[in-house]
Design goal:
Length: 419
């Protein structure tokens, strides 16, 4: 990339590989000891857990992440990258409510899905539950993969407006208008007069996930839709997805290779989960989209392929088989002695390029882990202070015993003299 030379990634160009002799991996069962050992310099790199996020990372006024002052003082740097992944909220297109039956039913269901996509605020979700480590998605293709559009030309115009140079989620009033057009004014089914009830299928969750499920219920409550959470174990959940018995569900995908085909095939008609056992968990099918996919999938990257991808993504945004969710961000910390680190989720052969400044590492370890002797000295003094009363008591006891013995001897001697 253009800035690689300035970043020092070309300093070792031409040197024999690998640049290090040995790699040692250690398993830590608990996160706190692992984090503390990283801060002491015994681990070269570390991920960032939610417990230590505030200690390690601070956000600038523009929302950019940087290391905290404490980390800067230790020479620790932060590397971030958007993962070639997507997490989304899926709608089962075979379901009569969110998928629709017949042309009129499908149109109403599409507007319902669009309304939900606007109401579910993934900017808020990323901020609360991912410590800002995510990028709200505007389609299935994550940044860094060909076909992804940046800026104004890349926004999902069904869900967002472009305001002051950045995407802004459409108002709740827009979502409510779509909901009314779908036949649910104010969240009430026009045909039955009852509140609309939808079902959210998730894998079995512990108490730690209660807050995120409550948050999701509140997103639907904005539209006066009652969301019922149906929690099962993972095997049962997969079976429901395979049979098409789920209504709304959480799902995700990690790209196997850096090509848009590997993301766009997730909504291809030949990949239906029901009947074909493919990866299209939403069971979405659109003849125009499928024809464009067949045309695009083996093309070389270029303007023509980009044009086809743009059309495909716009079809998906209009049909809204997913509420697009977010692309996770990977955050990792590295010590100053750890060089040639360029995060890349698609490359698994990067260890041979890493370089370690072992002298700097040893220097910093000694500096950060100097033996602390004053607690020992304080302990000795406290022990002596505690022993002084005991020694005085013992001395008085011995002295008293000696006096008693002397008095006894004197008494015996007087007794013998009298006799």
């Amino acid at each position: 990339m253009p800035d690689d030379g300035k970043a020092g990634f070309l300093d070792d160009a031409g040197k024999p590989l690998p640049l290090i002799d040995k790699v040692i991996f250690s398993r830590e069962r608990e996160s706190i000891p692992r984090w503390n050992k990283f801060l002491q310099g015994y681990y070269d790199a570390s991920s960032i857990g939610s417990d230590s996020f505030d200690q390690a990372v601070q956000l600038t006024g523009q929302g950019e992440a940087t290391v905290s002052e404490g980390m800067q003082e230790q020479g620790i740097r932060l590397e971030t990258t958007v993962a070639a992944s997507t997490n989304y909220l899926g709608f089962n297109m075979l379901d009569p409510v969110v998928g629709g039956v017949g042309k009129r039913g499908r149109e109403a269901a599409r507007k319902l899905r669009q309304a939900i996509s606007i109401a579910v605020d993934y900017e808020e979700y990323v901020s609360i539950f991912a410590n800002g480590r995510g990028l709200p998605a505007h389609g299935p293709i994550p940044p860094g993969i060909f076909g992804h559009r940046q800026g104004k030309e890349g926004i999902n115009t069904v869900v967002y407006d472009w305001v002051n140079g950045r995407p802004q989620r459409k108002s709740l009033e827009t979502a409510k208008a779509l909901l009314a057009d779908a036949g649910y004014p104010g969240g009430v089914d026009r045909k039955t007069g009852s509140q609309l009830v939808l079902y959210f299928d998730v894998t079995a969750r512990g108490t730690e996930d209660k807050s995120s499920l409550d948050w999701m219920r509140k997103q639907f409550q904005k539209l006066n839709i009652q969301l019922v959470v149906r929690s099962t174990d993972y095997n049962r959940f997969q079976d429901k997805i395979r049979r098409g018995n789920a209504q709304i569900f959480e799902w995700g995908w990690n790209a196997d290779y850096p090509d848009p085909e590997n993301m766009l095939f997730l909504l291809h008609g030949l990949q239906l989960k029901v009947g074909s056992e493919g990866e299209n968990a939403a069971n979405y099918s659109n003849a125009e989209y499928d024809a464009l996919f067949e045309q695009m999938k083996n093309m070389e990257n270029g303007p023509q392929r980009q044009h086809i991808i743009d059309r495909m993504v716009n079809i998906l945004r209009h049909d809204a088989p997913w509420s697009w969710g977010y692309h996770p961000k990977d955050f990792a910390l590295y010590h100053a002695w750890y060089d040639n680190v360029k995060p890349d989720r698609m490359a698994n052969n990067s260890i041979k390029y890493f370089r370690i400044d072992t002298e700097l590492r040893e220097q910093k370890r000694r500096e950060w882990n100097k033996p602390v002797l004053w607690p020992i000295l304080v302990g000795v003094i406290l022990l002596m202070v505690m022993l002084i009363p005991a020694a005085n008591t013992y001395r008085r006891k011995v002295h008293g015993a000696a006096l008693e013995a002397r008095d006894l001897d004197d008494s015996i001697a007087r007794s013998q003299g009298t006799s």
